Amino acid sequence: MNIGIDGNEANVEKHVGVSVYTLELLKHFAKFKQEGVTFTIFLRNEPKICMPKEHDGFTYEVIPAKVLWSQIFLPFHLLFRSDIDVFFAPAHYAPRFLKQPVIVTIHDLSYVKYPKEFLKKDLYKLNNWTKYSVMKALKIIAVSKTTKKDILNTFQLSEEDVTVVYNGFSRTNISSNISNDVLIQYKLNPKKYLLYVGTLQPRKNVPTLIEAFKEFRKQQSEFKLVLVGKKGWLFDKIYAKVKELNLEEHVIFTGFETDEALTTLYKNAFCFVLPSFYEGFGIPILEAMSAGCPVVTSHASSLPEIGGEACLYFDPNDKNDLLEKLEKLTSDSKLYSTLITEGKKRVKEFSWSKCAEETLSLLVNATKIDQ
């Protein structure tokens, strides 16, 4: 059988989130050897150097188009193809009007829960194109049980329509290159700062972290708070909160950081804090665990599901609960060490090879299901 895949999310310069997911799956599919199974990866641009090399069972096909690629140009091309047995859409949007069975991955439904965080044109696509993809799909992959529950509640589907396949994780996601340049740049002392990594937007709940940090500094005045991530919708309210609490000298906004810099920040942070109200999976907590950084995160959405027993959890609506957990970490060295140990164990439960194998099983069996 020949499996068609939308590979555009992987074919980019910087890989985060869904682009990491797509690239990792393609890497594993490119290594897959089974007689009678081949892959055709459809792209709108020529494959970049990061993409797996072609071979007899793994080939690229470029269909040029700047807009409406998955809605018009790819479907029109596939209309005349009889050699594609199943199509895989790894990021919400399935091509229109396909005669082949489709399997689609839904990473989260944040656009349903927090619609104001999206531009109108993006929100329109997410609402309408995702709905079409979900209703068209033979099978839907959810990256967590939380995401599956959200899908079932939003689209009124049956349990058997959605299969949970967890994202993978590998230590290669945390670069092995260690340099103290980023610590020098921001005047950071090892183990004397709290770290947050993620987009600066309302559902990430960063103001609660800032308010808790303000109280935390009353006992730990040498600490700083480092916020890594791009500016999202309403990020100005986060800056305003820092100014309101007179924390300009103690809260550092780094923007996007390289993998090497991020590795250093994780490894030298006192702890990593993710206060989000909603996450479809929460890959940063695995990144922190892999780097030996204790994790304090909110007891919300998929985070307890991914973090298991390897995190300290708090109520995202209660800054005092977060403060209590931070203070507990500073006073309980045994707990601190236990979180590091358990975190490194937890990370091993997530692998891209397992993710690829389970995804491939669904794809290979799709034609049987469709009969």
TrEMBL record:
<dbReference type="GO" id="GO:0009103">
    <property type="term" value="P:lipopolysaccharide biosynthetic process"/>
</dbReference>
<dbReference type="InterPro" id="IPR028098">
    <property type="entry name" value="Glyco_trans_4-like_N"/>
</dbReference>
<keyword id="KW-0808">Transferase</keyword>
<feature type="domain" description="Glycosyltransferase subfamily 4-like N-terminal">
    <location>
        <begin position="17"/>
        <end position="169"/>
    </location>
</feature>
<dbReference type="InterPro" id="IPR001296">
    <property type="entry name" value="Glyco_trans_1"/>
</dbReference>
<feature type="domain" description="Glycosyl transferase family 1">
    <location>
        <begin position="190"/>
        <end position="346"/>
    </location>
</feature>
<dbReference type="GO" id="GO:0016757">
    <property type="term" value="F:glycosyltransferase activity"/>
</dbReference>
<protein>
    <recommendedName>
        <fullName>Glycosyltransferase family 1 protein</fullName>
    </recommendedName>
</protein>
<dbReference type="Pfam" id="PF00534">
    <property type="entry name" value="Glycos_transf_1"/>
</dbReference>
<dbReference type="Pfam" id="PF13439">
    <property type="entry name" value="Glyco_transf_4"/>
</dbReference>
